[in-house]
Backbone:
C-alpha cells in the first residue's frame, strides 16, 4: 500500500539522481583530482564514487557498480589508493561539488531559502533509507552530513544517499530480470533515455564486440527488434524494472509524504533545469545512436 500518487517515486528520484550526477561530468572534478595526483579521468570518477567503501579493489566495484568491465576497473583499482587515500578523495569530492554547484547555479541560488528547503526535505527522505543489501548507500550513510551553513553541500549529500539507495535496489531488479551488465546498458539505451553507445563504451570499458553480442542476446530473448529498438516485450521489461525499482525505493518518499515528495520534486527540477541550462551535461550524452 502507498499514500503516494502513481509514479511519484520516480518523478522525484529522476531530478534528485541527476543533481547528484553533475559531479561526474564536472570539469571541476578534473581540477580537484589532478591536485591529488590522479590524472586519468576514469580513475578520477571511479575513485570519487567508490571512496565511501574504503580502499576497495576492482572486484568490489564491479559488484556494486554492476555495469563496468572488470578489466577497466582493474587498471585503476586498487592502485589509485596509492596516489590518494579514500579520505583525501572524499574531501576533494566535496570541494568539487562546491565549485560545481556555484558555477552551475550561482551564488544567489546557493544562498536561497529554496536550497535550504530542498536540503532539509532530501535529508528527511533519506532518514528512511536502509543499509541492508545496499552497499553504496551504506558507505555514504556513514559519512558526516555537511554543516548547515552549506545547504548546497547538504543537498548534494542527500541526493547521493537517495541515488545510491535507489541504485542498489535497481541492481536487485536487474538480477531478477536476468540482464547482465552489457544487456542492462543496451536495453536502457534502447529506451532513448540512457547514454548512447559511444558514451557507454567510452566510460564503462566494454568493446563494440561486447555491445553487439549483448544486442544479439536481447534479440534472441525477443526484447529487441532487428533495428535495435525495444519490442513490446522489451518495453514491458523496462517498465517492470522501473516499477520494481520504485517499489524497492519507496520508503524514503513514503516517509516524506505526498506533499513533501511533490515539493522536493519541484525544487529538484528547478535546480536541475538551471544546471542543465548552464551546461551540466554533454549535449550528446543520451540517445539510441
Residues:
Amino acid at each position: 500500500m502507498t499514500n503516494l500518487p502513481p509514479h511519484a517515486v520516480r518523478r522525484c528520484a529522476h531530478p534528485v539522481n541527476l543533481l547528484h550526477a553533475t559531479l561526474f561530468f564536472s570539469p571541476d572534478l578534473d581540477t580537484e583530482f589532478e591536485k591529488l595526483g590522479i590524472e586519468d579521468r576514469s580513475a578520477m570518477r571511479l575513485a570519487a564514487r567508490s571512496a565511501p567503501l574504503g580502499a576497495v579493489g576492482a572486484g568490489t566495484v564491479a559488484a556494486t557498480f554492476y555495469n563496468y568491465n572488470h578489466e577497466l576497473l582493474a587498471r585503476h583499482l586498487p592502485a589509485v589508493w596509492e596516489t590518494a587515500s579514500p579520505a583525501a578523495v572524499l574531501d576533494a569530492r566535496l570541494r568539487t561539488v562546491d565549485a560545481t554547484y556555484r558555477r552551475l547555479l550561482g551564488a544567489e541560488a546557493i544562498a536561497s531559502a529554496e536550497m535550504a528547503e530542498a536540503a532539509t526535505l532530501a535529508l528527511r527522505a533519506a532518514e528512511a533509507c536502509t543499509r541492508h543489501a545496499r552497499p553504496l548507500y551504506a558507505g555514504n550513510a556513514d559519512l558526516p552530513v555537511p554543516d548547515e551553513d552549506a545547504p548546497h553541500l547538504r543537498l548534494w549529500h542527500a541526493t547521493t544517499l537517495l541515488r545510491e539507495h535507489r541504485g542498489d535496489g535497481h541492481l536487485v531488479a536487474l538480477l531478477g530480470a536476468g540482464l547482465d551488465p552489457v544487456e542492462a546498458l543496451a536495453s536502457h539505451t534502447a529506451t532513448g533515455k540512457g547514454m548512447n553507445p559511444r558514451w557507454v563504451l567510452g566510460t564503462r570499458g566494454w568493446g563494440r564486440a561486447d555491445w553487439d553480442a549483448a544486442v544479439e542476446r536481447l534479440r534472441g530473448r525477443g526484447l529487441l527488434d532487428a533495428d535495435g529498438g525495444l519490442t513490446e516485450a522489451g518495453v514491458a521489461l523496462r517498465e517492470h524494472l522501473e516499477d520494481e525499482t520504485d517499489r524497492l525505493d519507496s520508503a524514503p518518499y513514503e516517509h516524506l509524504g505526498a506533499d513533501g515528495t511533490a515539493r522536493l520534486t519541484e525544487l529538484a527540477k528547478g535546480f536541475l533545469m538551471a544546471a542543465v541550462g548552464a551546461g551540466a551535461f554533454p549535449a550528446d550524452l543520451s540517445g539510441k545512436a
